[in-house]
């Protein structure tokens, strides 16, 4: 049986460089591509990330979506650009710190004619903090075609950013003490780099009414990302971790629940389209279908504005209360 030659190394992504730079984790004006997703190739299958973003202002933990996006960027740099990522399955192993660089180590599991598989391990201080397996598929023609219809929601231009929505509500000094506490915490803790979200239902976002663990937001990158489809896929991976955990917790907060600990345990992504733009408005709907045993399960769908389902996601998260934290 003749052996199939492995695909050649692809063209480098425009955000993978050989240039050293110091971390700018506190620089909220820094660009997305040249900082948060920027990698330095230090050797074959080894990439270093120096600019790391906090998920919360008061906590030096790395934003989980950044590890996802950077892992995809590093893996894509080792695959010919005729292959596109179609699935990513990852685990958050240990909290990463923004005060130290992250080393991404790529294991080229398989290079085939139709599929390539990469295993990525993110390391700090010699210990794994994150791992993921990514599968790439060579573009093929359609065999069967169908998809669900995109939900009908208000246009993003008619909605306000989440931070402004919360600030205006608090300025009017309305809402109960729980609501005010939740919104003030969000304003204080969420980095300005995430000010790209517009809630589709402001009343539910403001906890004005009871709701199911569901949420829909419009989201987009603030800057022009360019025409490399792989970068848009990396940005999508980066942003899909942004609201999933909050979708599960927020309805319970209206009833007085305050988590003592909450973070993502794993994150899965399926990329259905390779020609969407994350610098255009995208609709991200999330729903938590189950929560028990201190874990919550959340699913997501990322839609283009013209109605194409571009990305599906799934995540399990740890959610603990004060009683458990004392055990």
List the helices and strands and how they pair.
Elements: E1 16-17, H1 32-36, E2 39-43, E3 46-49, E4 54-56, E5 59-62, H2 64-76, E6 83-92, E7 102-111, E8 115-124, E9 127-138, H3 162-171, H4 177-189, E10 197-199, H5 202-205, E11 214-219, H6 229-239, H7 244-253, E12 261-271, E13 282-292, E14 295-304, E15 309-320, H8 322-325
Parallel strand pairs: 1-2
Antiparallel strand pairs: 2-3, 3-7, 4-5, 6-9, 6-12, 7-8, 8-9, 10-11, 11-13, 12-15, 13-14, 14-15
User: What kind of oligomer do you see?
Assistant: single chain
Largest sheet: 13 strands, mixed
Q: How many beta strands in the DSSP annotation?
A: 15
Query: Number of helical segments?
Result: 8
CATH class of the largest domain: Alpha Beta
Structural class by helix and strand composition = alpha+beta
Considering the protein shown, what is the CATH homologous superfamily of the largest domain? Hotdog Thioesterase
* Mean pLDDT reading: 85
Strand content: 25-35%
Low-confidence stretches: 17-30
Tell me the span between the first and last alpha carbons: 60 Å
CATH fold description of the largest domain: Thiol Ester Dehydrase, Chain A
Shape: globular
Give the topology string: H per helix, E per strand: EHEEEEHEEEEHHEHEHHEEEEH
Quickly count the domains: 2
GO biological process, one term: acyl-CoA metabolic process
Domain Acyl-CoA thioesterase-like N-terminal HotDog: 61-137
Subunit structure: Homotetramer.
Protein name: Acyl-CoA thioesterase II
């Amino acid at each position: 049986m003749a052996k199939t030659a492995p695909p050649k190394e692809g063209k480098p992504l425009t955000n993978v460089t050989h240039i050293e730079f110091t971390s700018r984790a506190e620089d909220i004006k820094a660009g997305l591509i040249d900082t948060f997703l920027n990698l330095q190739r230090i050797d074959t299958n080894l990439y270093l990330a120096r600019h790391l973003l906090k998920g919360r202002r008061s906590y030096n933990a790395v934003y989980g979506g950044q590890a996802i996006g950077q892992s995809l960027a590093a893996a894509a740099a080792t695959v010919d650009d005729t292959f596109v990522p179609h699935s990513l399955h990852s685990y958050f192993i240990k909290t990463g710190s923004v005060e130290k660089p992250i080393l991404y180590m790529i294991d080229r599991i398989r290079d085939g004619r139709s599929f390539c598989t990469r295993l990525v391990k993110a390391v700090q201080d010699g210990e794994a903090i994150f791992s993921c397996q990514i599968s790439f598929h060579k573009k093929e023609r359609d065999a069967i075609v169908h998809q669900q219809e995109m939900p009908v929601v208000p246009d993003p231009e008619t909605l306000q950013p989440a931070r402004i929505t919360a600030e205006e509500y608090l300025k009017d000094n309305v809402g109960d003490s729980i609501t005010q506490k939740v919104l003030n915490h969000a304003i204080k803790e969420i980095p300005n780099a995430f000010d790209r979200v517009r809630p589709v239902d402001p009343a539910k976002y403001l906890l004005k009414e009871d709701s199911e663990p569901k949420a829909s937001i419009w989201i987009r990158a603030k800057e022009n990302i360019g025409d490399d489809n792989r970068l848009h896929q990396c940005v999508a991976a980066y942003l899909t971790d942004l609201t999933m955990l909050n979708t599960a917790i927020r309805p319970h907060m209206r009833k007085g629940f305050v988590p003592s600990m909450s973070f993502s345990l794993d994150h899965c992504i399926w990329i259905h389209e390779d020609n969407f733009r994350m610098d255009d408005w995208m609709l991200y709907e999330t729903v938590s279908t189950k929560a028990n045993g201190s874990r919550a399960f959340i699913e997501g769908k990322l839609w283009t504005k013209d109605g194409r389902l571009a990305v599906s996601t799934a995540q399990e998260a740890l959610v603990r209360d004060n009683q458990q934290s004392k055990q």
